[in-house]
Every structure is written in C-alpha cells, then in structure tokens.
Amino acid sequence: MNADFQMEVMDQQDAERELGASGGRGRTSKYEPIAQKWSDVGDDEAIVLSDLEQNDIQNLRNLLYRRFGKENVIVRSAQQEDESYKAVVRAREDDEYLRNDE
Predict the structure, then answer these.
(1) 29-89 has which fold?
(2) Domain boundaries, the chain
(3) What pLDDT, in 10s, does the model give residues 19-78?
(4) How far apart, in whole angstroms, are the C-alpha atoms of residue 15 and residue 26?
C-alpha cells in the first residue's frame, strides 16, 4: 500500500517546532533553554528562576519531567509578594516528594 503522504517519527518538541505553532514558537519552546541548562548543570547545582507566572511553573514541570524523568529532577516553587513566582530546578534526592500515584 502506497500512502499519499509522508510520515516520520521525531521527538515531540521537534514535532511542535516543525508545525510552527503560534508563529514558530510552541508552548514549551520558551522553556527549552531551561531544559538545555539543566542538562549542563552539575549534580550539586540548581537553577533559580524568578518572575514566573503560575502556568510557567506547570509547563516547566511538564517539560522537565517528560525530558529527564520526574524521579531525577524536581521543580519547587513559591509565590512572591509581588504575586509572581520563583522556582528552583534541582536534582531530586531519593524519592523526595514523589507521589506514588503519578
């Protein structure tokens, strides 16, 4: 059977970029530099992010947990006095804060 279309399998992030959603910038693409930085930091280092919105925290968690495994990385966040959020990305120690149902 010969299909009239082409198909290839690729990483989800690459697929979103190929699609060019929202002018070539997919929802998680703005978090890609954070994922790249996380892959470069040492085991005893952390990334501190500030001026985030609540949905940024969840989008960042989704990307990092999918990419690196939620057993390996943790994103902790706290709302600041100015209503923005601050987050720390660091290695998860043992099964720290890992829920069994996830």
Answers:
(1) Alpha-Beta Plaits (3.30.70)
(2) 29-89
(3) 654 444 444 468 989 999 999 998 899 999 999 999 999 999 999 999 999 899 999 999
(4) 10
